[in-house]
Amino acid sequence: MNLSLYQDKDTWLHNIDPRTKLVGVAIIFIICLCFNNPIYMAVVALCVFFIALSARAQKALWTLRYILLLLVIFSVLLWPFFTVGKTPLWSWRFLRLTKESLFYGIAMGIRLSTFVIAGLILLSTTKNEDITNGLIKMKIPYPLAFAFSTALRLVPTFVGAGATIVQAQVSRGLDLESRNIISRFGKFIPLAVPMFISAIRYTNLLSMALESRGFSPGSPRTLYYEPVMKRRDWLILSFMIIVLIACLYMRIFLNLGVVMSGRL
Amino acid sequence: MGVSISIKSLSFTYHNSKQPAIKDINGEIKDGEFVVIMGHGGAGKSTLCYATNGIVPRFYRGGEYRGNVYIADRSVREFSISEMAKTVGLVFQDFEAQLFSTNVELEIAFGLENIGLPRDEISRRIDRYIDFLDLKGKRLSDTSILSGGQKQRLAIGAVIAMEPSVVVMDEPTSDLDPLGRAGVLSLAGLLRERKRTLVMVDYDPDTPVGADQLWLMKDGEIIGQGRPEKYLSDEKLLLSCGVMPPQTVSLFNRMGWEGSPLTVEAAKDLIEKGNLVKRRNQRKQKDSYFNSNNFFIEARGVYFRYPNSGNDVLRDINFGIKKGEFIAILGQNGSGKTTIAKHLNRLLAPTSGDILIDGKPTTRYRHNELARLVGYVFQNPDYQIFASTVQEEVGFGLKTLGEDHKTIKRNVAEALAVTGLEGYEHRSPFVLTKGERQRVAVASVLSVKPEVIILDEPTTGLDYQHQRDSLEMLKDLNRKGHTVIIITHSMWIAEEYAHRCIVMKDGKVLDDGETRSVFAHEQRLSQASLIPSPIVRLSNWLGADAMTVEGLAEELKSYESLTVSG
Q: How many helices (H) and strands (E) are present in chain B, helices listed first?
């Protein structure tokens, strides 16, 4: 079973330079931080969502649907109680809910899931090696770039091992079906210990295999997929920078898209 | 011819270990030679392989290294591993951990990028080696969709694309199915034709036939080194190294026949030339023997597909299993063996159809109820071992099922006795050998006393002696009334131990019947890319019934006495 997020397709996002995508994701992150009005956030989220569709990343989104859902639900439920606005809606003892804080919570939910979606677009359209190469070309030291992309690469491997470990323990009678959260927590050790041990074994073997293939972090190497910035990349980047400046201008000088001022 | 590898009184002791892993190893391998290393688990085979490119000692700090290894006159100690990679290509047993790129061409490119080849040369090499690996058309495929055999071939290809003069493979076929193994071996044959020096650790007595040298290892030392024919006919020596002797040699020894044929063909030749025994017409094997209705486990029209996937992994599976059977499930990886086995304790549930245990569908049981009926031992014991003592590990299932202290103690003691682990109660399972850890895993399932025990490739990575020991243990359990189901790639294991075989192919049952009858149909087996072991091929050719060396020898002797008295 293939657990990796990368989708081997041929869309415009697959074909642009990884650096454009890395910078683009960073710009989307900053734009998300510009607004805390749910309507403005929704517009940003919708744009990012359409980009995801154009990159045919639906499958990756669908895989992570529960995480996205949880992010929205928890933000909407929790944020409002930790921020204070002007228009009271409801209060009970020390808990107070205001209109602004409710909106703020919704905006945060949208913001967090937009972060995740933007990251997903990057991961589902960019090969691991391209991320490494992009980072190297951006003058990130090779060991750092390699460590970053290897960490991403190992996630699906460990998820797979985790699934096997769960099955192995369940078939020995470990009861994960009971609803009791506390007793569930005690069942953590039989899963965690084999997980750690197999991860350590795996990484040790991986590093032996890497060095046996001539890998040495300090020395110069060829990039077989050398990323090349084309006209298209510069156009996309310029467009995104203009959008970013516009958003910053709206927030800083026009104070638009804000339900709670003084907060990101 | 120049000397490719030269090892001079090499010893290595791992940190915190009293015994050296390898002791006073000497050897010389000429350019273009093919050397096979065999030996029992823990004999030091891997350590020796790792010493050829410097993983030993560089990866094992605090170890004690003496002697020297020279590759083409360069002392391995003086170079870094990545430097050595240009002259020595090392292939590991675990093909999953060796592949780390997104697609096939990047995997091959990785080593070439590291040695800084220009991009057009990398591209040329990929073109050249992708053909050689028989992976054409997969150039841009994700490596995770490849079969085990293809993955291992890719791992080898990624190493040889760097064009090292020496290739060292540490048990490259141990984790593969027969088809994958055949692919890797044919790749090794191609390498030999191209005059690469090739060193391979392997377990099958077939591999060294035709090699230039065989090195036999025992307890860290080389106790036999030279022409393979010389050592392969020495049954005692091989057994003392935990290596399975060629079955044809064992048969000839037992019959007191002249000669030591290493292959079935050679044995047939000798038998015909010497007119040693007459061939007969094979007795017709009864094809089906189970038409009963008191099945303990029953599969009825089972289909299965993974969610979000378009194709059925299992298609219309039907069978019944009675209490007390010993069954082997055979087939290539991806044929659905493990998938169907996982249905039997509802690690998976059918997409349509039913699995009945004791007449009730698995979906109507809770997992912990099923754990008492059907135990499942996973292939890799390290996916379940977590406790600090063997006793705690083995008692875990009982504890979670809520048994009282006394029962736990009694059952654990029994399980340890059956698996031969008495006296291990207070040891840490993590420091045991692979064979022992495998036993702990079996014991931890046995302690719950399930009616049925399923083992997924219980002998992978074990040497011949340990394989025998585990199977004798299973045979014993079976005799005591447990139903045993094993998934295996080893034909001789199925032949010798299973009463019944289920052969899977492409998610369907290709054949299901008494072991003897399944193995009599070599043609049908070949549809699932399976080949009976040498002794059964010989037995089929002779028209005999037996499936083991001992059995065949006895049977042939009984013919002789018949002809003498008649």
A: 23, 20
Do the beta carbons of residue B238 and residue B205 sit within 8 Å? yes
SS3 (DSSP) at A98 = strand
| Residue A125 one-letter amino acid | T
Q: How far apart are CA A4 and CA B144, in angstroms?
A: 9
From the CB of residue B186, how many other CB atoms can be counted at a distance below 10 Å? 12
* Cβ pair A212:B90 closer than 8 A: yes
Identify the DSSP state of B492.
H
Question: Which secondary structure element, helix H or strand E, spans residue B149, and what is its range?
Answer: helix B148-160
Contact B397, B445 (CB under 8 A): yes
**Complete DSSP assignment for A52-95:** HHHTT-HHHHHHTHHHHHHHHHHHHHHHHHHS--SSEEEEETTE
In order of B244, B247, B251, B419, the CA distances from B238 in angstroms are 7, 12, 15, 25
Share of chain A above pLDDT 70, in %: 95
Residues B356, B294: contact at Cβ < 8 Å?
Answer: no
pLDDT at B221 over 50: yes
pLDDT tens-digit profile of A153-203? 888 889 889 999 999 888 887 877 666 655 666 678 889 999 999 999 899
Report the C-alpha gap between B244 and B103 in whole angstroms: 38
**Two tokens, residue A159:** 């998820």
What is the ipTM metric for this complex? 0.88
Nearest Cα residue in chain B from A208: B55
> Å from B214 to nearest chain A CA?
25
**Element (DSSP H or E) covering residue A105:** helix A99-125
**What is the nearest CA distance from B128 to chain A, expressed in angstroms?**
16
- State the angle between helix axes of B104-114 and B119-132 in degrees (0 to 180), rounded to the nearest 10: 130
**Chain B contacts in chain A segment 76-105 (CB below 8 A):** none
Three-state DSSP at B410 gives helix
